[in-house]
UniProtKB/TrEMBL annotation:
GO BP annotation list: bile acid metabolic process
Listed GO MF terms: oxidoreductase activity, acting on the CH-OH group of donors, NAD or NADP as acceptor
Organism field: Planifilum fimeticola
Name of protein: 3-oxoacyl-[acyl-carrier protein] reductase
Lineage: Bacteria, Bacillati, Bacillota, Bacilli, Bacillales
Family: Belongs to the short-chain dehydrogenases/reductases (SDR) family.
C-alpha cells in the first residue's frame, strides 16, 4: 500500500531534527511539498532564542543538531517544493504571518503536523520549575492550538485538511517527574477530539499520534542506564525509530485514512502494556 500525497502541501512544526525532520522527509517521499518550521535555523545566529527555550535547545544549537535548511534542500532534491522558515509556535502573530505566507506562495496548506515541543523539564513536583511549567504549556499545548487555529480557515476554504497532533504515552500513562510534559500531552488528546468534531463537516480530519520512546537525538542524550530501563519497558525490548512515527503520519494524511478522525494512534512498541 502506498500513500500518495501528490499535490498536497504539508507544514511540519519543530522539524529541524528528530521526529519532525523524519516526518517532513517521509511526507515528501509520499509526494507532498513540505514547509519546515522551527525556532532554530542553521543560518541564523540566534543564541537568544536557544537560551529562551531551555537546555535542550541550547545543546542542540551548540552541537549543530539543527537541520531545518538541510531538510528543505533534501526535499527539493526529491523534486518537491520546500522551504525552511523560522517560526515560534507561541507567537500567534508570527504563526499567522507564516501560515498566510505559505498559503500565498505554496497555494494552500493541506496537512499540518503539530510536532514542536519541549521535553527537557524533568523533576518531581516539589522541584518543578514554575517558569518551565509555563513554557511547556505555551509550547506544547498552546502552540498546537495556535497553529491549528491559523490553518483552520485555510483548510475550511479548501474543504480538505489533515491535522496530526503529536501526543505521547506520557499523556496517557503519565511520567515520573514529567508533570508539565504529561499534562500538555494529555491536553492535546482532548483538543484533538474536539477539533475532530468541529472539522468533520469541512472534510478536515484531526488525529493524534501517541509515540513511546523513539531513537532520536534527544533520546541519545539520556543517561544510558535510564535508556536501557525504558527500552526494557517496551514489548519489543527496543526503541522505535523516527520513521515508525513518520509512516503513521503519512497514513493519517492520506486518503486511506479519510474516515478516521479523533483517534489516539499508539506507535509505542507496547510500552503501555503490562510487560515483565
Amino acid at each position: 500500500m502506498t500513500y500518495s500525497l501528490e499535490g498536497k502541501v504539508a507544514l511540519v512544526t519543530g522539524a529541524s531534527r528528530g521526529l519532525g525532520r523524519a516526518d517532513a522527509l517521509a511526507l515528501a517521499r509520499a509526494g507532498a511539498d513540505v514547509v519546515i518550521t522551527d525556532i532554530l535555523l542553521e543560518s541564523l545566529d540566534d543564541d537568544e532564542t536557544a537560551q529562551k527555550y531551555g537546555p535542550m535547545s541550547q545543546v542542540m544549537k551548540s552541537t549543530g543538531v539543527v537541520y531545518a535548511e538541510k531538510t528543505a534542500e533534501e526535499i527539493r532534491k526529491m523534486g518537491r517544493r520546500s522551504m525552511a522558515i523560522r517560526m515560534d509556535v507561541t507567537d500567534r502573530e508570527q504563526v499567522n504571518e507564516v501560515f498566510q505566507k505559505v498559503k500565498e506562495e505554496m497555494g494552500g496548506i493541506h496537512i499540518l503536523v503539530n510536532n514542536a515541543a519541549t521535553l527537557d523539564h524533568v523533576s518531581r513536583i516539589e522541584y518543578q520549575n514554575d517558569e518551565f511549567w509555563e513554557r511547556d504549556l505555551r509550547v506544547n499545548l498552546t502552540g498546537t492550538y495556535n497553529c491549528t487555529k491559523a490553518v483552520w480557515p485555510i483548510m475550511k476554504e479548501q474543504n480538505w485538511g489533515r491535522i496530526i497532533n503529536m501526543a505521547s504515552v506520557a499523556g496517557t500513562i503519565g511520567g515520573f517527574g514529567q508533570a508539565s510534559y504529561s499534562t500538555t500531552k494529555a491536553g492535546i488528546l482532548g483538543f484533538t477530539k474536539s477539533m475532530a468534531l468541529e472539522g468533520a463537516r469541512y472534510n478536515i480530519t484531526v488525529n493524534a499520534i501517541v509515540p513511546g520512546i523513539v531513537n532520536t537525538e534527544a533520546f541519545q542524550m539520556i543517561d544510558p542506564k535510564m535508556r536501557e530501563r525504558m527500552i526494557q519497558r517496551t514489548a519489543f525490548k527496543r526503541p522505535g525509530e523516527p520513521e515508525d512515527i513518520a509512516n503513521a503520519i503519512c497514513f493519517l494524511a492520506s486518503d486511506h485514512a479519510k474516515y478516521i478522525t479523533g483517534i489516539e494512534l499508539n506507535v509505542s512498541g507496547g510500552i503501555e502494556l503490562f510487560t515483565f
